[in-house]
Amino acid sequence: MSLATEVLRILTTEELASLENARICPETLSRSCPQTQRLIQLRLVEMNFNTLTLSCLGHEIHNLTRNCQNIDVTD
User: Fold this and answer.
1) 27 is a domain residue
2) How far is the C-alpha of 33 from the C-alpha of 48, rounded, in Å?
3) Could you tell me the pTM of the whole model?
4) How many domains does the chain have?
5) d(CA 70, CA 67)
6) Is residue 23 part of a domain?
7) Domain for residue 41, yes or no?
8) Is residue 75 one of the residues assigned to a domain?
9) Which domain range does residue 11 map to?
10) Quick one: DSSP state of residue 75?
11) What is the DSSP string of 7-72?
12) Who contacts 71 (Cβ-Cβ below 8 Å, separation ≥6)?
Protein backbone atom coordinates (compact mmCIF):
# COMPACT_ATOMS: atom_id res chain seq x y z
CA MET A 1 0.00 0.00 0.00
CA SER A 2 1.38 3.40 -0.91
CA LEU A 3 1.89 6.06 1.72
CA ALA A 4 -0.75 8.30 0.14
CA THR A 5 -3.27 5.47 0.19
CA GLU A 6 -2.44 4.79 3.83
CA VAL A 7 -2.99 8.45 4.71
CA LEU A 8 -6.35 8.42 2.96
CA ARG A 9 -7.28 5.14 4.61
CA ILE A 10 -6.97 6.59 8.10
CA LEU A 11 -9.03 9.66 7.28
CA THR A 12 -12.62 9.40 8.45
CA THR A 13 -15.35 9.03 5.87
CA GLU A 14 -16.37 12.65 6.47
CA GLU A 15 -12.81 13.89 6.05
CA LEU A 16 -12.35 11.82 2.90
CA ALA A 17 -15.59 13.24 1.46
CA SER A 18 -14.33 16.74 2.22
CA LEU A 19 -11.12 16.03 0.35
CA GLU A 20 -12.93 14.48 -2.62
CA ASN A 21 -15.43 17.32 -2.75
CA ALA A 22 -12.61 19.85 -2.93
CA ARG A 23 -11.66 18.55 -6.41
CA ILE A 24 -8.44 20.52 -6.35
CA CYS A 25 -4.74 19.82 -6.39
CA PRO A 26 -3.31 19.54 -2.87
CA GLU A 27 -0.73 22.14 -3.91
CA THR A 28 -3.55 24.71 -3.71
CA LEU A 29 -5.23 23.09 -0.73
CA SER A 30 -3.94 25.68 1.72
CA ARG A 31 -5.64 28.49 -0.16
CA SER A 32 -8.81 26.69 -1.21
CA CYS A 33 -9.52 24.23 1.56
CA PRO A 34 -7.43 24.91 4.68
CA GLN A 35 -9.61 22.67 6.86
CA THR A 36 -8.88 19.62 4.72
CA GLN A 37 -5.18 20.43 4.52
CA ARG A 38 -5.07 20.72 8.29
CA LEU A 39 -6.82 17.37 8.71
CA ILE A 40 -4.26 15.70 6.48
CA GLN A 41 -1.40 17.41 8.31
CA LEU A 42 -2.76 16.26 11.65
CA ARG A 43 -3.05 12.69 10.37
CA LEU A 44 0.50 12.83 9.06
CA VAL A 45 1.72 14.09 12.44
CA GLU A 46 -0.13 11.22 14.11
CA MET A 47 1.73 8.89 11.74
CA ASN A 48 5.01 10.63 12.72
CA PHE A 49 5.52 12.32 9.35
CA ASN A 50 6.32 16.01 9.19
CA THR A 51 4.16 18.43 7.22
CA LEU A 52 6.67 18.52 4.36
CA THR A 53 5.48 15.01 3.56
CA LEU A 54 2.15 16.52 2.50
CA SER A 55 3.67 18.21 -0.54
CA CYS A 56 5.46 15.00 -1.47
CA LEU A 57 2.18 13.10 -1.29
CA GLY A 58 0.16 15.85 -2.95
CA HIS A 59 0.26 14.56 -6.51
CA GLU A 60 -0.52 10.98 -5.57
CA ILE A 61 -3.34 11.96 -3.21
CA HIS A 62 -4.80 14.17 -5.94
CA ASN A 63 -4.73 11.30 -8.41
CA LEU A 64 -6.35 8.90 -5.94
CA THR A 65 -9.20 11.28 -5.16
CA ARG A 66 -9.63 12.63 -8.67
CA ASN A 67 -9.94 9.14 -10.08
CA CYS A 68 -12.49 8.33 -7.37
CA GLN A 69 -10.73 5.11 -6.55
CA ASN A 70 -12.35 3.09 -3.83
CA ILE A 71 -10.45 3.73 -0.62
CA ASP A 72 -11.15 1.23 2.13
CA VAL A 73 -11.48 3.37 5.25
CA THR A 74 -12.33 0.44 7.49
CA ASP A 75 -9.89 -1.72 9.38
Assistant:
1) yes
2) 23
3) 0.31
4) 1
5) 9
6) yes
7) yes
8) no
9) 3-66
10) -
11) HHHHS-HHHHHHHHHH-S-GGGHHHH-HHHHHHHHHHHHHTT--THHHHHHHHHHHHHHHTT----
12) 5, 8, 9, 16, 64
